[in-house]
Fold this sequence. Notes:
Blueprint: H1 3-22, H2 25-41, H3 49-73, H4 75-80, H5 88-91, H6 96-117, H7 120-141, H8 148-157, H9 159-168, H10 173-196, H11 198-203, H12 209-213, H13 215-238, H14 244-266, H15 272-296
Helix pairs in contact: 2-3, 2-9, 2-15, 3-6, 3-7, 3-9, 6-7, 7-8, 7-9, 8-10, 9-10, 10-13, 10-15, 13-14, 14-15
Amino acid sequence: MTTNVLQLQRSVRAKIHEYLVLCKHKVVMLLALTAVVGQGLAPNAERTLLEQMMTIVGIALLASSAAVINHIVDSDIDKKMRRTDARPVATGSISNGHAFTFSMIMLAVGFSLLAQFANWLTAWLTMFALVGYAFIYTLVLKRRTPQNIVIGGFAGAMPPLLGWVSETGTMSAEPWLLVMIVFTWTPPHFWALAIDRKKDYENAKVPMLPVTHGIEFTKTMVLLYSVLLTLVCVLPFLIGMSGNAYLVASLVLNSIFVYRAWQLKFAPKEKSAIKLFIYSIWQLMLLFMALFIDKWLI
Length: 298
Ligand code: HEM
Ligand SMILES: CC(C)=CCC/C(C)=C/CC/C(C)=C/COP(=O)(O)OP(=O)(O)O
């Protein structure tokens, strides 16, 4: 193979990677998992596997579309933070115009898939989540209030409800418990990272909780939310939606969460905050897998 072909291959691969970064693909994969579990826990509506898969693709495309808008709107902030200054829109490696077109294509395809393979309620609720994250959180709340993620986190918490509604066409009480789990998980997930990256947010003048209220207060909040999360996670068991296997998994995963949050507050080490952030991602993934396994495999 000539050097030119190799170089072309490498630059195509690099471009694809940039577009994946633009979509926040790892976040979207976890969001999609929570939507799959929402589908899996809903009463069996006898939908085909194709319909279910296309629904998840639709939700993932709208979440990715929202993430791209977030990169465009936030590029001024992203340029000022070490964690984000290499992002493709912030560096100019992908132009605003290209990013916007990409986002709108994903929006159109994702919405059509949801209307076609799920139902209108799912399509519009997912659109509501997109607006919640891309505009209400990113454009308004993030720059104004340290409670930004408590309120904005609602958008990220919606996928289990979206998955459920795609199966049933109605919003019953049970999927709201799953929404509550992700909603309660989001503040300790994000604030752990924000403690570690406080300087970044200070530099960019973003009013995140550690900047406005200090690190100690934020650590207390992380601990309190981790206890609240433990309690909320028991609710699916209490209403009979999930069984003993889920209860055990949830108690183990949340005990580790509370223990780590306790350590962060009362016996911190240099990397306690970032380790808690990374743990939070594994915790949510395993928790939702436990919900699914409990229903289908045990
Ligand atoms: C408003 C709500 C949320 C905020 C403010 C938030 C904030 C963040 C931030 C700042 C990062 C670091 C990203 C990076 O370095 O590129 C991150 C990573 C991550 N978040 Fe969240 N998050 C939220 C909700 C969620 C939700 C709902 C999920 C999934 C259900 C999620 C899953 C993840 C995952 C998987 C990562 C790791 C991504 C990677 O390694 O590239 N987050 N989050
Ligand atoms: C349609 C649908 C389900 C939408 C959900 C949208 C979505 C991708 C939610 C995840 C939230 C998230 C990654 C926040 C990051 O905060 P940030 O943007 O402040 O973080 P940053 O500093 O890393 O950009």
